[in-house]
Amino acid sequence: MDTLTDAFVWLNDPLNWVGRNGVLALARDHILVSVLAVLLAAVVALPLGLWLGHRGRGATVGVVVANTTRALPTLALLTLLAASGLFGNTATVLACAVFAVPPLLTNTVTGLGEVDADVRDAARGVGMSGGRSLWAVELPLAVPLIAAGVRTAAVQVLATVPLAALVGGRSLGTIVVTGFGTQDYGQVLAGGILVAGLCLLAEGLLAIAQYLLTPPGLRALARDTSDTPSRRTRRARVTSPGLAEPATSGSNRSGTTS
Amino acid sequence: MRLAQAPPNPWFSWEYVERNAADIGRALEQHASLTFQAVVIAFVLALPLGALAHLRPRLAGPVLGVAGVLYTVPSLALFAILAPYTGIGRTTVLIGLVSYALLVLTRNVLVGLQGVDPAVRDAARGMGYGRSRLLFAVELPQALPSIVAGLRLATVTTVALVTVGVVVGYGGLGQLMFRGFRSNYHAEIMTATVLCLLLALVCDLVIAGVGRRITPWARVERPV
Q1: For the region Disordered, what residue ranges are annotated (chain A) (predicted)?
Q2: Which stretches of B74-207 are assigned E, i.e. beta strand?
Q3: Which residues contact B158 (CB under 8 A, 6 or more apart)?
Q4: Looking at residue A57, what is its pLDDT?
Q5: Quick one: fold of B14-215?
Q6: Spatial separation of the C-alpha atoms in residues A77 and B2, rounded to whole Å
Q7: Within a domain: residue A227?
Q8: Which residues of B146-162 are buried (b: 16+ CB within 10 A; e: fewer)?
Q9: Are B174 and B166 in contact (CB under 8 A)?
């Protein structure tokens, strides 16, 4: 209970909020780094995903990429980049971008892959070129999954950025790491609450944004099957009756939700 | 006057590995045992949770929701929130790891159970299976592939996550990475990273192998 009081005292001290190492400045850096990382990852992953998904042969690539990066510890990449001379937030942006690519890539590829083949046929039937069909038909239908990928990536990056405090990056994680360093557990707890709060807030806001981005027609469709389990079962049954690659369904699942 | 030559700082150094074998072994052992314990505990918790959510569909939303919120909280924040209460050390890391593995496992157990073909379920009910017998003798074995997939995912993620335990002094190989970073010793960081990847790969292969052995029916080749 004592630490909790300490944490509230820390949070209520205005001096901890302003200034170069205040909560506000650190939060700004945190968000800035995250946005840059997501943008960088999107620039790489979205065109690649669109191309692979349109060609209809990228599912395995996406899964392999996703599984490899999942095994690579964030801390390892951060220390590697930081130790090779990229100090501060440049290393953070790069490392976080690397981890944001898989959800974006997998979801884009899956989103395009799940477009009904009949719809694609119809697009070709009315004389659309490949690019036109991708832009006018397949992409709008894939938007919900792509938006989900952006949301997953963004929340994941927001959660990863604090780790960079260990290697000298500035973010809300700095508060936690400094607190551990000075054995001030009130500050540690306060920092933890701030970081967790930021992530939960971002998750909520992005969920709303995702809802708004989804075309109204698809939204109605999603409402019919809105209880997640039944939607998943339907998809699981469609995609993997033989269950040759359990990892595929597993990683897609974790990519689209959470 | 000649400037002193900076000592070489290679990324790979077999000499480092040989000299510090005991140290590396200790870190690796800590890493592996933390991963193992976390996944086992999470699995023991996830099985009944998933089954409960399956038997009482109204609970599925809350169960997954709570696990999802836990999963959204960043690891560093979770360790920071836990550390003042559970102290600096193994327990804190373990609780954190378990709570992350829990979501993946629970969700896969639930998805596996719900993915059972309704016709199979009907057939079992028609043969007079009760609810619990249906669950244990029909649905659970049918859900095995999904559960194994969840185990693989959870294990690989946990291996990577253990390194974050460095903030409370129990990071396994993360400990080596951090120390290497502090003393700017490249070989130490690289060795720890490679070992981490290897550990994840080995665990993944072992679980996949076991999964293949316990689900022989999944191996029956599909019609060509």
Answers
A1: 222-258
A2: none
A3: B35, B38, B39, B97, B100, B101
A4: 67
A5: MetI-like fold (1.10.3720)
A6: 36
A7: no
A8: bbbbbbbbbbbbbbbbb
A9: yes
Asked whether residue A236 is domain-assigned, the answer is: no
Q: Residue A230: what pLDDT?
A: 40
ipTM above 0.85, yes or no: no
pTM: 0.76
Closest chain B residue to A157 measured between Cα atoms?
Answer: B74
Read off the pLDDT band of B206 (50, 70, 90).
very high
Establish if A159 belongs to a structural domain.
Answer: yes
Min Cα–Cα distance to chain A from B202, Å: 11
Count how many residues are written for chain B: 224
| CATH number of the domain bearing residue A211 | 1.10.3720.10
As a whole number of angstroms, the distance between CA A197 and CA A211 comes to 21
Instruction: Provide CB contacts within 8 A for A10, sequence distance 6+.
Output: A16, A186, A187, A190
Tokens of A102: 């898989």
Structure tokens at B113: 């159970």
The 8 Å CB, 24+ separation contacts for A39-45 are: A40/A93, A40/A94, A40/A97, A40/A100, A41/A96, A41/A97, A41/A98, A41/A100, A41/A101, A41/A104, A41/A153, A41/A157, A42/A100, A42/A104, A42/A150, A42/A153, A44/A97, A44/A101, A45/A100, A45/A101, A45/A104, A45/A105, A45/A108
Q: Which domain holds residue A116?
A: 2-222
With beta carbons less than 8 A apart as the criterion, state whether B184 and B132 touch.
Answer: no
| In chain B, where the domains are located | 14-215
pLDDT score at B12: 81
Judged by a CB distance cut-off of 8 A, whether residue A159 touches chain B is yes
Averaged over A142-170, what is the pLDDT? 85
